[in-house]
Amino acid sequence: MSAETATEVLAIKYAETAVAAREHFMLPLGSGGNPHAAPNADPHEGPHPISYFLWLIRHPQGLILVDTGFGEAAAARRRRTLLRHPVEALKAVGVAPEEIGTVVLTHLHYDHAGTLACFPNATFVVQARELTYAAGPAMRHQVCRKAFDVEDVTEVVRTLYAGRLYPVEGDRLLAPGVSLHLIGGHTNGLQVVRVETAAGRLVIASDATHFYESAAEKNPFPDHCSLPEYLNGLDRLFELTDDPNLVVPGHDERVLELFPTRPGDPNVVELHRGPLGPTPFAGVVLPPVREP
């Protein structure tokens, strides 16, 4: 059995909330990226849901966790509904935190890089650019630091000093069929994860595209450090796959409906099985080049 055939990828929802759509998109939903068009879908002021996920890769060489989520304190402070602590979410799929050997941090925002101390045996992989950004001069500006938590970043630095944080620069092969790709845009060192599965090349996009509309309509999430880099990153997501339906947004609740869920738990999605049908990315025209 090849690594691709044997590799499983789970998206595990652990929290949720809903806010005005204008907090999730720069342009009105349904505008097709045209700032002058009248919205023909949800009003820009209407409520828009956001789901929070962990991603677990069951690889023949070991367990890989993508992001660590947030716990009770952050949920209360930021008024998020915590459905279950990330550790409990993993236990629900039969994984103890001590079993995790590798954690990929796509970036260091509070909802992706909390609870690091819960994984005592893991090596954490992050882009060096992200580490420099999150602990650097830009953080004196409130607009840059609002989605970071100083305690989380401090824990990241502690992990670095303990020799358990491995900063990388650019694209890297993590394991056979699992690769990391620097995107940037949303944060300076945002990275995504590509996994070779039986369904094809699956892209865990994290916050490179929060929602399907973010990429399909080129309608960015308002929180970013470089808009041109963010927009170029949307194109790169589709360079990483041969099937646009296999690009998985980081926060879209429709992932729970578009992909098969684990029997008995509607908040655990079996991404490696591929979508149940066309996703909102089905009509995306793939770029003329591909990542090898």
Automatic annotation (TrEMBL):
InterPro entries: MBL_superfamily_lactonases (IPR051013), Metallo-B-lactamas (IPR001279), RibonucZ/Hydroxyglut_hydro (IPR036866). Keywords: Hydrolase, Metal-binding, Zinc. Pfam families: Lactamase_B (PF00753). GO terms for molecular function: hydrolase activity; metal ion binding. Residues 51-251 form the Metallo-beta-lactamase domain. Belongs to the metallo-beta-lactamase superfamily. This is Glyoxylase, beta-lactamase superfamily II. It comes from Tistlia consotensis USBA 355.
